[in-house]
Amino acid sequence: MSPEDFDFVSQLIKKRSGLVLTPEKGYLLESRLLPLARKQGLKSLEELIAILRSRPEEKLLHEVTDAMTTNESFFFRDTRPFDLFRDEVLPKLIESRQAKKRIRIWCAAASTGQEPYSLAMILNEQAAKLAGWQWEIVGTDISTEALTRAQSGMFTQFEVQRGLPIQLLVKYFKKMGDKWEFDPALRAKVKFKEFNLLGEIGALGNYDVIFCRNVLIYFDKETKGAVLAKMAKMLPDDGLLFLGGAETVLGITEQFKPIAGQRGIYAVVK
Amino acid sequence: MPTCLIVDDSKVIRMVAKKIVVELGFEPVEAADGQQALDACKNSLPDAVLLDWNMPVMDGIQFLIELRKLPGGTAPKVVFCTTENDLGHIQKAIESGADEYIMKPFDSEIVQAKFSQVGLL
Ligand SMILES: C[S@@+](CC[C@H](N)C(=O)[O-])C[C@H]1O[C@@H](n2cnc3c(N)ncnc32)[C@H](O)[C@@H]1O
């Protein structure tokens, strides 16, 4: 791919999604967009890029962006944040939300569903304490393909072995052929929606906790700051944000501050 | 150094598993069937057991039941590692005292994840 083509496509993707592609990632562009070009009945990547330059349709632009997303995810990724959610965050929420008996969680980069489903299992395991409560988990992502997989609730053997304790596999999954299906009743309590983090957050509603894990690392500082500012606005005074293991708010925004002893969790500053 | 008993009738699998547990900081001990494994445990209890299901002489489940009866036999963390990958088998393993369960094919990432889930890492 020529440097001009690389610049053109990487700028297009950045503008649409915030994802930054450095030139070393040029191979990624080729390996992911070539299959897309073939699917469109085109002979080469150059032909695809020519169309993107001259007469791109929204659908194609969306597919190109989708193809460049990294959707890797695990159940209970990094373990500790989910332990903290269960042992520290949830008990406090149950105390502070006693009047409304309502908890709302937003997974802002839900990908193929492991994160929202992990949270759904945690909440379901606390059913006794949450009797009479309403809880809601909304998973959003820019990738149509990832969301389709999330909604299907089907996971490979490989995926259910990464992070999911065996007792939870037995309790919440059924084997269907060579796949594992997440419990339909619990699955029905998790809502999925396509949503671009660069877009207007307001319409999404209000949440007590936001999980925004392992997506900001793909953005530049300015985009990170803009996304975090919007999230700070939508959270209540005691709202919390969970970031991924390699992510931080330090040096990016003053609107969140780390919580001592609870790595990966940030409190909104109002 | 913590020890990991690798129980599998396939020499190749034992070799692969050995390499993985060594990288995770365990001293490996090998056994080719449940009886050999039980003898090894009577001699000295390991910290972890990576356990196949189908083996000649004594299978994995029988070994596990016998292990849990030994003095101190509830301490080792037992992780099944087998091609049996249906819920029935997994449930039976848990009921018999297994701490975790790996469905083959496996790799170092899965062993590491399972070992840390049961508190070995
Ligand atoms: C590596 S996954 C993280 C999944 C999960 N949160 C986790 O930690 O395992 C990153 C996800 O971010 C999504 N993503 C990338 N840019 C986005 C954007 N602008 N808006 C919404 N989602 C985006 C990708 O589609 C991908 O599914």
Task: Report on this structure.
The complex is a heterodimer of chains A (270) and B (121). With 270 residues, chain A is α/β, with parallel strands linked by helices. Chain A folds into 2 domains: 3-69, Chemotaxis Receptor Methyltransferase Cher, domain 1 (Orthogonal Bundle); 80-268, Vaccinia Virus protein VP39 (Rossmann fold, 3-Layer(aba) Sandwich). Chain A is 43% helix and 17% strand. The longest helix of chain A is centred in the N-terminal third of the chain and has 17 residues, at 80-96. Chain A is globular, with a radius of gyration of 20 Å. Chain A starts with a helix and ends with a strand. The model of chain A has no long low-confidence stretch (mean pLDDT 96). With 121 residues, chain B is an alpha/beta fold. Chain B has a single domain (3-117), classed as 3-Layer(aba) Sandwich (Rossmann fold), CATH 3.40.50.2300. Chain B contains 5 helices and 5 strands. Chain B has helices at residues 11-23, 34-43, 60-69, 87-95, 108-117, and strands spanning 3-7, 27-31, 48-51, 77-82, 100-103. Chain B has a 5-stranded parallel β-sheet, with helices on both faces. In chain B, helix 4 (87-95) links the parallel strand 4 and strand 5 (100-103). The longest helix of chain B is centred in the first third of the chain and has 13 residues, at 11-23. Chain B starts with a strand and ends with a helix. The A-B interface holds A 79, 157-158, 161-163, 165-167, 169-170, 174-175 and B 85-87, 90-91, 94, 98, 100-103, 106, 109-110, 113-114, 116-117. The structure holds S-adenosylmethionine. Residues 17-19, 69-74, 77, 109, 111, 115, 141-143, 146, 196-198, 213-215, 244 of chain A line the site of S-adenosylmethionine.
